[in-house]
Amino acid sequence: MGNSRGPVVAAIALAAVLWPLARSPQSDGFPLSNYPMFTQQRPAVTSIQTAYGVDRDGNETILDPQKIAGTSEIIQAAAVVERSTVDGTAHLLCEEIAGRLRRDASEGVVGGIVDVVVVTEIHDVVLSLTAERAPIDRTEHARCPVLP
Amino acid sequence: MPGPSVIASAAAAVSRPDGIRRLILGYVVLWTVVRTSHWMALTDLPDRRSSPVGPLSWFDASIDESMVVALVLMTVGTASYAVLRNLHPAPIGLASLGFLVLTTHGNGWGQVLHTENLPAIHLLVVAALTPAANLSRPDLDRWMIRALGATTVATYFVAGVAKLRFGGEAWLDGETLRLLVAHDNLRKELLGDPSSPVAAVLVDQHWLFRPAVFGSLAIELGAPLALIPFGRRLLAPAWITVAWLFHLAVLVSMAVLFLYPLTGIAFVALMASSPNSDGADAPEA
């Protein structure tokens, strides 16, 4: 390419980064993205999907993204739980989580958790963040034992 | 403590083309090492959870554990060799491909993370615009720096346009952002991830969010200003400062870490860019 290599590569790189402007927000990609983060409108009262560990007395323990979805990334874990409640695979996710807890329990990491629940909670997000973290409503999609 | 002259000479060194190449490659080495366990863990997930993006979706390919190990060794090995021994296009090219596949794999599980896009793009640019060993190609150096700066600016511009396109007019009133910050932090708490310790205080400050919206839009849509010559310099230093503060604000309010810009490496090419074609301000080759 000789002397044209520099401008050609620069033009291609710039065009590639700008190209996702033509895509819809639903079709995000990598490494070329339309960066839809922080653009989604969230109502004040909204649903959040998550999973809890439950002990014999019914007390619930918050699980981390690694336990919930096998990833350290919170937004990937949130997407996994949300998708499972939409496509009817919450019971499969529940079994996955129970499996991870079982494996960790054998290493003495997790104690006291007997069940896993996958839920959708409806929250007033500001109220739940600033005052009491109590859902307005809640739907249980799946419940499964940690020990088979 | 290093003196001002030491700091100044270090800054001058990293703003030269080879210094910029080494900085980006060094970042890739560290990021790859840190993220290896994450990429490995993803290979244990069931296939139904996979939603490949980018290059991996084109080839309908999935990555297993042994491939992750091989790609990590290739990426770290070639990038380290380039940094420490020889800035040759071959090892940089291998490092860029390895890093692209690894990060694409990491982003193909239901949600794109947006923290690895720019370093992956920058590394591809560096690979494409590094001259063969022992060849002096100031033209390639200049175009590499321009391309790195332009792609940095373009990512912010695209993100700004996305806010207007996808968020609509409602996004401008500040309430959407306030609820987004509340939602993001509450979701972190419910899914066992660290949230911002100041989020609860921040979301009660209604007045804060409308200026924050216009500030973030000004930074993102105004990013191309960083490429405009101002006297013998670009407007880059001023834009870089506010863009860095923007990422700091995101970290503080949402506990979202964009490490590449926060380290400054995302912006270093903009500081080295030359508005002049005669080489008066051109980076040293």
Explain this structure to me?
- The complex is a heterodimer of chains A (148) and B (285).
- With 148 residues, chain A is α+β, with helices and mostly antiparallel strands.
- Chain A has 2 domains: 5-39, no CATH class; 45-145, no CATH class.
- Chain A has 5 helices and 4 strands.
- Chain A has helices at residues 5-18, 65-69, 74-86, 90-106, 125-130; strands at 45-55, 60-62, 113-124, 137-145.
- In chain A, strands 2-1-3-4 form a 4-stranded antiparallel beta sheet.
- Chain B is built from 13 helices and 2 strands; from the N terminus they run ααααααααααββααα.
- In chain B, α5 (89-106) packs antiparallel against α6 (117-128) and α7 (138-167) packs antiparallel against α10 (209-221).
- The longest helix of chain B is centred in the middle third of the chain and has 30 residues, at 138-167.
- Chain B has a two-stranded antiparallel sheet.
- Chain B has 2 domains: 1-130, no CATH class; 156-285, no CATH class.
- Mean pLDDT of chain B is 88; it is low at 274-285.
